[in-house]
């Protein structure tokens, strides 16, 4: 097809949500075009063992899993492009999209599956030990720290959830909160306070993650007492929030105050007919590969019904 063609369905994003949407859309005869974006494969490309994705009884490496997703989407007839969609115009029909290189694409329906990016502290040691004890997902990686002490950074609902999840696997969880209060909901704070093996460190900043090849500890600074000390841990979980990758679309779609794209409950419909959102770009609660894949499937089914109902397919 040429770029003047109106594609029935353009999918943006190549994580579990995007590829699953592509598999379903291709099998429904929508001949989808999928843009893989700046980080093909999404967050799973920086994950090592994935043990909680059904269908892989022996576990699988994140990059291998995404390669499997990609090959399946391609085999069903998805056209893949490496480009990044940097802007769009959803004011009329057809829907208009532009790549970073300013190439224009037209579509009758668009599925946004651009994911979210975990926020990091920005320390060199955190980057160096990422995947070697440093993680931004307790549900993904907590299992590998069973019976070991871990630290969690953050004071929001995510940090509380991660700390509680880890407290069921680890003898001691050290929760590092940078100020004298938490931003998390009262109910989550209450649960954390009640957990006997979660110790909260107030006014505590992370100075450095310690370890050569694997995390062995964390150096922190007690801001109130103005002193530094080390805590011995095997795992270091950063839970200071995520940024949904919704920037190019915010002008046209309803989002919440953090930029997550709003979808109509029980569906993937956004505020613009013909535009659907799936995966972490619209989900700040579950954020799992399997839930992202599930919503990718929903988006393809929603797009197919939309196209049929409007005589576009
Ligand atoms: P939040 O933005 O709510 O909280 C981020 C936390 O990280 C804050 O305590 C913040 O501290 C801290 N923080 C930020 N930067 C740093 C840093 N550099 N060093 C140390 N600490 C830092 O993010 P969440 O991911 O927790 O939550 C996002 C949204 O998702 C919220 O609306 C939340 O309610 C929702 N959510 C809901 C869940 C549920 O319903 N089950 C589960 C998880 C999230 P400070 O306060 O000092 O800025």
Please provide a brief summary of the model.
By secondary structure, this protein is of the alpha/beta class. The protein folds into 2 domains: 2-118 and 242-309, FAD/NAD(P)-binding domain, CATH 3.50.50.60; 124-238, 3-Layer(bba) Sandwich (FAD/NAD(P)-binding domain). Helix content is 24%, strand content 26%.
Would you give an account of this structure?
- The chain has helices spanning 16-27, 62-75, 124-128, 138-141, 157-167, 186-194, 289-309; strands at 6-12, 33-35, 49-50, 60-61, 79-81, 85-89, 95-99, 104-112, 116-118, 134-135, 150-153, 173-176, 198-201, 204-210, 217-222, 227-232, 235-238, 242-244, 275-277.
- With 313 residues, the chain is an alpha/beta fold.
- It folds into 2 domains: 2-118 and 242-309, FAD/NAD(P)-binding domain (3-Layer(bba) Sandwich); 124-238, FAD/NAD(P)-binding domain, CATH 3.50.50.
- Strands 1, 2, 5, 6, 7, 8 and 19 form a 7-stranded mixed beta sheet that branches.
- A hairpin with a 4-residue loop joins β7 (95-99) and β8.
- It is elongated.
- The two termini are 17 Å apart.
- Bound molecules: NADPH dihydro-nicotinamide-adenine-dinucleotide phosphate.
- The site of NADPH dihydro-nicotinamide-adenine-dinucleotide phosphate (NDP) has 17 residues, from α5.
- NADPH dihydro-nicotinamide-adenine-dinucleotide phosphate binds at residues 121, 153-159, 161, 178-179, 183, 240-242, 284-285.
């Amino acid at each position: 097809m040429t770029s003047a063609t109106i594609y029935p369905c353009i999918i943006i994003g190549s994580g579990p949500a995007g590829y699953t949407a592509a598999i379903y859309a291709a099998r429904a005869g929508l001949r989808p075009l999928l843009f893989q974006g700046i980080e093909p494969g999404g967050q799973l490309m920086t994950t090592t063992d994935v043990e909680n994705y059904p269908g892989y009884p022996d576990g699988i490496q994140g990059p291998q899993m995404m390669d499997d997703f990609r090959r399946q989407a391609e085999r069903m007839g998805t056209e893949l492009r490496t480009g990044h969609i940097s802007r769009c115009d959803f004011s009329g029909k057809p829907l208009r999209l532009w790549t970073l290189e300013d190439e224009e694409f037209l579509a009758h329906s668009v599925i946004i599956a651009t994911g979210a990016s975990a926020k990091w502290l920005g320390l060199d040691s955190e980057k160096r030990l990422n995947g070697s004890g440093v993680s931004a997902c307790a549900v993904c990686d907590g299992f590998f720290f069973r019976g070991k002490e871990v630290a969690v950074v953050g004071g929001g609902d995510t940090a509380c959830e991660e700390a509680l999840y880890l407290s069921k696997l680890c003898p001691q969880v050290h929760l590092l909160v940078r100020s004298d209060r938490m931003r998390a909901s009262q109910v989550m704070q209450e649960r954390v306070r009640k957990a006997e093996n979660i110790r909260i460190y107030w006014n505590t900043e992370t100075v450095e993650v310690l370890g050569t090849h694997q995390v062995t500890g964390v150096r922190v600074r007690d801001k109130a007492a103005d002193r530094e000390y080390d805590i011995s841990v095997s795992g270091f979980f950063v839970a200071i929030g995520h940024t949904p990758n919704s920037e190019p679309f915010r002008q046209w779609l309803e989002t919440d105050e953090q930029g997550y794209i709003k979808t109509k409950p029980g569906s993937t419909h956004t505020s613009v007919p013909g535009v659907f959102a799936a995966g972490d770009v619209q989900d700040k609660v579950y954020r799992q590969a399997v839930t992202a894949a599930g919503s990718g499937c929903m988006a393809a089914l929603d797009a197919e019904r939309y196209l049929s109902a409007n005589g576009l397919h």
